[in-house]
Amino acid sequence: MAPTNPGLKHLSNALATPDQLSNSSSSIDGVPADLETSIRCAGAQLTQTAGILLHLSQDIISQAIVIFTRFWLGADGGSLRIYSVKDVSAAALYLAAKLSFLPTSPRSVLNVYTFLLSRDASPLWFVKPDGAPKAPPAPETYILTEGGYQSARLVLLRIESVILRTLGFDTHVALPHTIALTYLQTLGVAKPAVAQRVIQHLNAALLSPQLLYVTHQPNALAVAAIYLASREVGVKLVDGDWWEVFDVDREELGFLVVGMQSTEGFMRAEASQWKDKTIPMVPDEVEAEIERRRMMQEGE
C-alpha cells in the first residue's frame, strides 16, 4: 500500500499501488481475472449481509469490506486457491467489529455465516441461485453444532491473524460517509434526498469492480457521490469547479463518477452470468470452476 499523508492520517487511507492491482496473488496462481472479480464481489456482498444480520453499523461493515478487499491485493496478498472467501469475510467482519465500540462474539459471527452459506436456507443469490426455499428448511441445515463451532472458531481466529500479518497490522480505514455529509453542509445543501442518495452511492461503491475504496481517497469518493446525487435529485450546487475546493481534480472526479454509475450494471451482469450457478466460496470450488473452464476451452 502507498503511504498516506501524515497530516491527513485519520482522513486518508493507504492506497493500492498499480503493481498490487495488476498482480494479485490469485492471478499469479492462475485464477482468471473475471473469476477473481466475481468471487471478490460476492465476498463483499456476503460481508455486507452478515453485518446487517449481526446488527452492526454501516461504518463497521464498510471497514470490514475494505479490509477484506485489501487482503487479496498484490503478490503478497491472499490467493483464492489457498484461502476461503467465506473465512476471510467472517474474519474481516469479526476484526472490524472488535476494533469498534460494538464488538461481536465469534459464536454470533459463525452462526450468521453458517446460515448465509447454507445451500438450503441462504437468501443470497450466489449461494442459492434457485431462489428462496418453497418450504422452511430443516434447522440442522443452518444451525452450527457445538463441535462445528469449536472447529470454526479456530479457523476464524487463525484467518484473523493471517489478515493482520498480510496487512502489516495496518487496519486503519477512513470512510467517506461522514466527510460527504460535512461537504454537503459546506455547500449549503440541506435536502435529505441528496444526503440519502450520497450514502447509497458510497455504499454501492464498496462493490465496485474498480475497487474504488482502495484506489481513491475518501474525500474524492465523497465529492463524486455528491456530484452524482445532486444531478439525480436535481439540486444545483455552487457555480464553478467546486470539487477543486475539496482537493479533487476534474479527471479524478470523472473516473469516479463513471465507476460509481457502472456498479449497478456490473451487478446485473454478474447476476446474469452466474444465473443457476453458485459462485465459488472455497478453494476446492475455485479449482473446480477453473477446471470446468479449461475443459470447455479444450472442447471448442
Automatic annotation (TrEMBL):
Gene3D superfamilies reported for this sequence: Cyclin-like
GO molecular function, one term: cyclin-dependent protein serine/threonine kinase regulator activity
TM region(s), chain numbering: none
Gene Ontology biological process terms from the UniProt entry: regulation of transcription by RNA polymerase II
Designated name of the protein: Cyclin-like domain-containing protein
Organism name: Penicillium arizonense
Lineage: Eukaryota, Fungi, Dikarya, Ascomycota, Pezizomycotina
